Amino acid sequence: MDVKNTQIQKGDIVDLTDAGLEEINKYKNDYNDMSAPIPSNKRDWRTKDIANLWIGMIVSIAVYQVASGLLVSGMSWGQALFTVVLGHTIVMGVAIALGHFGTKYGMTYPTLSKIVFGNKGTVFPSLIRAILGVFWFGVQAWIGGQAVYTIIGALYPNWLNMGFTTQFISFIIFWIMNVYIAASGSKAVKVLEGISAPILIVLSLIVIIWGLSTADWSLNNLLNVEILKADPKVDFWKLFWPALSAMIAFDGGIALSMPDYTRHCVDQKSQSLGQIISAPIMTFYISFVGMCGTAGGLLAFGDEIWEPAVLVGHFPSVAIRIIFSIFLIMAVLTTNVAGNLIPPVNIAATLTKNKFNYKTVTIGVAILALLARPWDSLSSAYNLIFNVTQLLGALIGPISGIYLVAYLFDYKTEIDVVDIYRTDGGKYFYSKGWNIPVIILFLAMTLLIFAGRFVDSLSWIFNNAYVFGVVATGALYYIYIKLIRK
């Protein structure tokens, strides 16, 4: 059937017609309520909605830590602020480009993966998304565990003298809280989600005010604290490029998943304007908060503290330690369950063809987070930024480059909606469900980037993992579709 009869474009949005749905049902397909595109008449997200989404994601403990971590690594406050904001702004290019697909067709990230990798080949991007979720779940659970550790230590001071053992126990306590909410499907997380962002904004304002108080209420004094000055022993440009790549990679996973959110947008202007306005501004804000907290920690306690949960633990007041730690737990809990644990659980349930019940899968995925050893990832600011985040960039860089070139240059944003859902043929079926050239390119470039971690002559590749992955993989795929395949 002519594609003109199966789908119709209304402004920025392509809708599946009744004739299109009838055509889908003539073939074996995976069309269902979950995968169905959202029609234009059911969209209600505008610029402010997509902006609020990024505010909720950017105003987080993790962004605070990464920003303050650059200070500990040797940058000045101005250099760190510039690096963080630039990185988060650049990644908006990927988020807006992939978000275009979600808005135009009302479809999800898994659907985009199927178009590019094939019906069966989607196992590769699915695993990447699951790995990212499991890793960040573990990291955030460790951060939340530090807040639990502070609360218990405020009530029983000897708890703080037992070293890693009680830190690990605190982590497990918070881990169990996350698993319980995700496995039980409790509505509590929805309630907490609504107040987590406001709580973090209030907390961040308090951090700025407290930081100023430690510097005699002088912003100039605060910004001239030794830790906010560049380390003369550190070459800024040698630090800048891997740091910039890490900052871009930090939100690279979210950028991949943007179709899941932008499919609700009423037009392309809403999704693009909402993203490019809110993300850089909120990144600037929360990064500045991290710098105030780090500088204030040095002035008040004489320590370079880049973790907010640890900073709270230094206050002598038991009430302050308990109250602020509870707020931190609430903030981390909501983003961690919804953003990091549930996505890999859903992927695992799909890959195992629902052979196990949801609670079993949730517990299994959460246990995998223990293998990520989040306590090592957060052992130092340098390790989190220049090793761990680069590893994540090595995973999502190549796949991002492939998506961008496939959607923008191979298909030129024109997608056959009927063929998307077919599982027995069509444009996106490739070799029995596998897009072999794309899969080979993805695996080869990912291995090359990882090799840069162990081969000195290739270290520059790993140090710029995400950027290299996007640019080099995208360029090779472009050459393939223009010269080799043709």
UniProtKB/TrEMBL annotation:
The chain crosses the membrane at residues 50-71, 77-101, 122-143, 163-183, 195-219, 239-258, 279-302, 322-344, 356-372, 384-409, 436-455, 461-480. It is found in: Membrane. One of its GO terms (molecular function) is nucleobase transmembrane transporter activity. It is a multi-pass membrane protein. Keywords: Membrane, Transmembrane, Transmembrane helix. It comes from the Bacteria. InterPro entries: Pur-cyt_permease (IPR001248), Uracil/uridine/allantoin_perm (IPR045225). Gene3D superfamilies: Hydantoin permease (1.10.4160.10). One of its GO terms (cellular component) is plasma membrane. Belongs to the purine-cytosine permease (2.A.39) family. This is Permease for cytosine/purines uracil thiamine allantoin. It comes from Anaerococcus prevotii (strain ATCC 9321 / DSM 20548 / JCM 6508 / NCTC 11806 / PC1) (Peptostreptococcus prevotii). The lineage of its organism: Bacteria, Bacillati, Bacillota, Tissierellia, Tissierellales.
